[in-house]
């Protein structure tokens, strides 16, 4: 007999099927093979003691402060270590417990695995002169050719924007914005390219959004996350998809010493609020974007990427958009033109953590990287 260790990202269902496990056995075992680390903030000491005992009773565990057992501190943080089967059991077990554990039981169910969406590449097309990456700026016939090339290279979505949202940027009036996007929208509509890919309008101008949605566009990429009710009404009217992005303050001020109590929980709370607003207008097709670089320090960005899977609990697709952004320069001191390698690392990690839409300047390179990543993940013994 010989043994060897397998990578934790190995597809459990395929692995168990390969060795001859029954379909019923596969269903049971795959939940036992996926380990979860659940961070619990500000849990009451009695609740922590109860939860630890309940976790231990089913083979899971709870990491707690050494003073928890004596209830020296009223509140502390804890880390639950449990597989999917154990999470399901705890979610039922704690429903009968006091000290806030009933709410914990309801919340933890949201972290159980959900069906993963196929990863789609969203190509970026800008029609303004001040976007931070010159390689994304196109106009006229050149823009149409670039759209066609991105679709040929594998882009499933094209995101068109007429106003820069880089840190420090200043907006323009919506008439000027429309004059920038209108020729491109018209060419896309005339060539019926919306039949070959989805088109997204990167705007929070009702005038521009209405114009694009009426001409084959089906996604609104709103960096203000429906601050304007008129945008919400238009999304609902056309039964479009909305991308709700988190940012802190205006684009002009957002990078001036951004602060959070807890970046993961603060962004989570923001999404809860904006999702409710979207639903109040009858919007059901929602994508969430944590807004890398929009009012975040390097540490904030890194935490959002590393723990991206947290936001899957909402049940919506996650978009990651870190293409050639300054966080890469902060780490490796590189100009915009040299940030593709760092971009690929960030995006592949986010996809590994559950992102299913990748907004990029370099479509062909991302398609190749994602194919390689998929092949590695699907490789079996």
Quick structural summary:
The protein has about 375 residues and is of the alpha/beta class. It contains 14 helices and 11 strands. Helix 6 packs across helix 7.
Number of helices: 14
Characterize the overall form.
globular
Query: What name goes with the CATH superfamily of the largest domain?
Result: Dihydropteroate synthase-like
Number of separate domains:
2
Which ranges are low-confidence, i.e. pLDDT below 50, for 5 or more consecutive residues? Answer: none
Range of helix content? 40-55%
Overall average pLDDT: 92
Q: Which CATH architecture of the largest domain is right? A: Alpha-Beta Barrel
Distance between the termini: 16 Å
If you consult CATH, what is the topology of the largest domain? TIM Barrel
Largest sheet: 8 strands, parallel, barrel
- Summing up helix and strand content along with how strands pair, one would put the structural category as alpha/beta
What is the number of beta strands?
A: 11
Q: Bin the strand percentage.
A: 15-25%
| CATH classification class of the largest domain | Alpha Beta
What order do the strands of the largest sheet run in, or round the barrel if closed? 4-5-6-7-8-9-10-11
Q: Output the helix-strand order.
A: HHEHEEHHEHEHEHEHEHEHEHHEH
Radius of gyration: 23 Å
